[in-house]
Amino acid sequence: MYWQETKENQRFTVPDDIVDVVYSVDCRALPVDHAYALSQAIQRALPWFAEEESAGLHTIHVADSGNGWMRPDDPSALLHLSRRTKLTLRLPKHRVEDAGKLTGQMLDIDGKNLRVEKLAVRPLSTITTLFSRYIVTREGADESVFLQEAMVLFRKMGVHPKKMLCGMEHVIATPDRVIRARSLMLADLAVEESVKLQQQGLGTDRKLGCGLFIPHKDIREVKPVLE
Questions:
Q1: Using an 8 Å Cβ cutoff, are 170 and 71 in contact?
Q2: Residues sharing a CB contact under 8 Å with residue 64, sequence separation 6 or more, in sequence order
Q3: Which of 50, 35, 40, 20 lies closest to 170, judged by CA?
Q4: For the stretch 17-53, what's the b/e string if a residue is b when 16 or more beta carbons lie within 10 angstroms of its beta carbon?
Q5: Any residues with CB less than 8 A from the CB of 61 and at least 6 apart, and which?
Q6: Dist CA 82 CA 123 (whole Å)
Q7: What residues contact residue 134 under an 8 Å CB cut-off, 6+ apart?
Q8: What is the pLDDT of residue 2?
Q9: What's the DSSP call for residue 140?
Q10: First-residue to last-residue Cα distance in the chain
Q11: CA 89 → CA 19, 69, 137, distances in Å?
């Protein structure tokens, strides 16, 4: 754990060069570890997605998974989706129109059908508590090492978190490799820092849902889960 008090943030206008494209979906269930299959399905439907440097995929989570901090241990277990479940891509603004071509398509996710429905565009948030479900880490790096290495990367970006909490290690499987990652929450950022992290992310494998930050209401809601 890393913890330091902070000052109030000032007003900031969020640029719209990076946005979240949010789709309603019709899907009963997906495997817990669906990142690779979902990413491949999106790349088949949107061939440009793989080469778009600023593009990322938010993997699908449901309410009873604890916003990503708690997940079933078995990667083949199923997440049961509701009609409120969304599929979200983080994209540069100039790709929003292209992303519309995903609507109406039926994606095959490891044998589970996911129909993509209507689209909405959501700007990045000014909330100064951010959460990333998966930040890629080195094998054998414990919590302390992970936080130290993350802080080095943040400082290179000009970001200075006052509070950081990381979760347990997750494994994301692909046919070629196994990716090890940890969840990470940051609190009391400057608004400019929050937006920069949402725009740029941290680390590798954005197309598999890693390194992407989303707003979270309050770090105090998560701290007891980790203790």
A1: yes
A2: none
A3: 35
A4: ebbbbebbbebeebbbbbbbbbbbbbeeebeebeebe
A5: 67, 68, 79, 133
A6: 24
A7: 59, 170, 172, 179, 181, 182, 183, 205, 208, 209, 210, 211
A8: 57
A9: T
A10: 11
A11: 8, 20, 22
- φ, ψ of residue 118 to 5 degrees: the values are -65, 155
| 13-24 average pLDDT score | 93
The confidence band for 9, taking pLDDT boundaries of 50, 70 and 90, is: very low
CB 171 within 8 A of CB 75: yes
Residue 170: Cβ-neighbour burial (10 angstroms; 0-12, 13-18, 19+): buried
pLDDT band for position 125 (cuts 50, 70, 90): very high
Question: pLDDT for 169-195, tens place per residue?
Answer: 999 989 999 999 999 999 999 999 999
For residues 69 and 226, is the Cβ–Cβ distance under 8 A? yes
Q: How far apart are CA 169 and CA 217, in angstroms?
A: 23
Helices (H), 71-165: 96-99, 143-157
At 226, is the pLDDT very low, low, confident or very high (cuts 50, 70, 90)? very low
Give the burial class of 74: count Cβ atoms within 10 A of its Cβ; 0-12 exposed, 13-18 middle, 19 or more buried.
exposed
Q: What is the pLDDT of residues 65-91, one digit of tens each?
A: 444 444 555 656 888 898 889 999 999
Q: Is the Cβ–Cβ distance between 36 and 30 less than 8 Å?
A: no
